[in-house]
Structures are given as structure tokens and as C-alpha cells.
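Appendix B. Chain record.
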Amino acid sequence: MKYTNKKRSMLAVALCLLILLTGCGELPYDMVYDPDYPVSSFRVVTNDRYAVAESFAAGLCVTAGSVTENTTFVPDDIGSAGLFDLNQSRVIYANNIHGKLYPASMTKVMTALVALKYGNLDDMLVASENAVIDEYGVQTFGIQAGDRMTLDQALHILLIKSANDIGIMIAEHIAGSVEGFAELMNTEAVRIGATNSHFTNPHGLHDEEHYTTAYDMYLIFQETLQYEEFKQIIAMDSYTTVYTNAEGTPCEATVRSTIQYQTGNYPVPGNITILGGKTGTTNAAGNCLILLVKDTSGNQYIAVIMRARERAALYEKMNALLKEIYGQ
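C-alpha cells predicted for this chain:
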């Protein structure tokens, strides 16, 4: 019997469905995501019962196009914007959320996801010569070859300061090379459904083949929020730690958030609490920001804006987008 690629995909899905019953009498199913497979859910029959396997998109905010009805947000001077209600799995606002754009340092959310999945927080990282970046205007921690820190320390510096050199340090530790790490990034992107993305590095410095969408960033951000360490880090406005340099000398360092809300440089809309997020800025990407926020009832939302022309415009637009939570 000849097996086509489609038959192999169907067989792989079927095999993944054959797992033990839980003590509660329910059937848990680990669904394999295949972007080319036409079926999104399955009716699974055993000897004495049946169950419907949860579809891949269950619990996700989904839309194929723009969502602007009953909103007042004006998407001028930006590339894309999306506002997602996590409690109701509802898209409140969407404009060009499937358009491919450059993510800049929002890339580091995916870097954190891969690092948290494949690494251990107490792993000791040692910087190579490759991690040293002396390019003018590039945000770095100033790491030198031979410097040592744990993965936990590195993730704090990566996400709070948005240090590009630390991204390389993490990538080489997890995968042995930037190229190998990018392969893991792309594998994880497909796994969670972010199929309009392609990553070539762990930091987001410009590469024409390094892109994503506002919707994919929502998917990536939501997936990374499953890790408590990530949520704790992005909520911090500063971080102080002690790492070891190549000579074995302890070095104290403090890094501060790049998010203007967290530094107090930009006011937050009334009745909104910022729980954390990630910025991104390059000439090609413009100014980007993804946030986790909550309303006065504790309901949580993800908001993302990509390719704003200026930083001030980014926060002005983000405030306007967040006000859509209350229909303002």
C-alpha cells in the first residue's frame, strides 16, 4: 500500500489520539497541528464511548480579516494593530493583522519561548566571541567573550533591556548556533499556528527573511505567557543582578525596561493596568509594541501595534487601541 504525504499526516494524527483515559472519565488528546490538513477537529470513538477532540483553535481569538465594527480606532501611520480578549477568545479590533511585517525586538518573545521550552533556568551560559556586538546604535548589554550568567539572568536582561547580544548568547547555548536556534524558532512557530512568520535570528536585527504578523505575535505571546517566569519578567520595570566576567570577577548590573508605560514616561489609559510586554524598534520595522493588560474586572487582553512611524505615535495609538476595551 502506498502512503501519500496526506495519508502520512492522517496516520500521525490518528496515532497521537490513542492515549490513556484520565481518571475523570474524559479523553485527553494531543492534537498535531498541520497547516495543510483540512480538518480542525475529530470525533474519536473507543469501544464504549466517544469524544470530540478539541480543535486546534479552541481558546484562540480567530479572524480571517479586519475587525473594525463598533470601534473608533483610526489606524493611520501604523502598519497593523490587533486587540484580543483572552477571556472571551474574541477579537475586539484587527487591522492588517495577517500582513507580514518586521518585528524588530518583539522577536525576543519567541526567543524566550524557545529558551524556556528547551533550556533550564539554572543553566550556565558562557558568551562566545559571536555574542559581542559593537555595531553603533544597536541595543546591547555589553557582554564580553567569556562572561558567564545563568539562563534566568540572561532572560531577564534579554526581555527587560532588549539586549541583542544576550539573544545570541542564549541561542548558542540552546542550539549551538544562531542558525540552529532559528530552526527551533520556526519549528515552534508552526507548532502554535504562526505560519506567516519566519525567523533568522534571536534578536530581531533587520533581515529581509525575518518577518511575522500582528496575529502571529499574538499567538507567540499568548503561548509564552504559559510560562510563569516569562510573566514575572515582563512585569518588571528594572532588574539588578550579579554575573561573572571572563576573569572570574563578580559584576553587578542593573537594566531598565524599554516600555514607556513601565518607566513612567507615558501615562496609561484610565481603568487599564499594564501587566507587561515587549517593544521593538528598527528603521525597517518602525516602532512596535505588544502588551498584556487587564481591565478593572481582571479580564486580560493582548494588544499589539506594528510599524508606527515614531515612538510618541506608537504610545498615542496604543492608548487609543486600549480604550476600545471599554468601547470608548
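Further analysis of this model is presented in Appendix C.
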